[in-house]
Amino acid sequence: MASIERADPVILGHILQEHRELHALLRSTREAIKHDSPPASASSRSAGAQRIAAALTALRDHLAEHFQLEENGGFLEESLARLPRLASEAKQVLAEHPGLLQEADRLIKQSSRGDIPANGWASLCHDVDQFATRLLDHERRENSVVQQGYNEDLGLTDS
Q1: Cα dihedral sign for 24, 76, 95, 89?
Q2: Distances (CA, A) of 93 to 59, 86, 100
Q3: Domain residue ranges of the chain, discontinuous segments joined by +
Q4: Do residues 53 and 138 lie in contact, with contact meaning Cβ atoms separated by under 8 Å?
Q5: How much is the pLDDT for 72?
Q6: 42, 46, 79, 155: which has the fewest Cβ within 10 Å?
Q7: pLDDT tens digits for 57-111?
Q8: Cα–Cα distance between 45 and 111 in angstroms, integer?
Q9: Cβ contact 90:145 at 8 Å
Q10: Separation of CA 35 from chain center
């Protein structure tokens, strides 16, 4: 009788830790934009924008590492080795990386200006929230490929 190859619990633990860190950074970023109405004073808007820029920078740095791991033989490659039919889905996920990093860079630049006018605050918060939503959608697709490849429910929740 053939044995069923199970995923290495160390690898799965690493996947889970990576995603926990990513989701924590996303929560931090969303927390930084929780106020849709602009702070009353320019100095308060500047401080708020700097918090957003710091949260986005931490998120972007983590994403760059996370994406580099995936692109250089990470969990997606292992999933493909186990289940080659996932190649198209994996390719689509990997193709999104440059755009997500560019969008993060644009938002960091936008929020780093420090002189966000009151009428630009809602736009900045909306743009950051939309980026977070796109990133979560990307992660869901990535998780789907990994879970199919490992034939494991990683128990990852959407946040």
Answers
A1: negative
A2: 18, 11, 11
A3: 16-31+39-150
A4: no
A5: 82
A6: 155
A7: 999 999 999 888 888 877 677 777 777 788 888 889 889 999 999 999 999 999 8
A8: 10
A9: yes
A10: 21
pLDDT digits (tens, 9 = 90+) for 135-151: 999 988 888 887 777 76
**CB atoms near residue 99 (< 10 Å):** 11
At residue 116, what is the residue type? I
Contact call for residues 13 and 36 (beta carbons, < 8 A): no
- What is the spatial distance between Cα 12 and Cα 75, in angstroms, rounded to a whole number? 9
CB 150 within 8 A of CB 9: no
Eight-class DSSP state of 113: T
Lowest mean pLDDT among 2-6, 31-35, 56-60, 119-123: 2-6
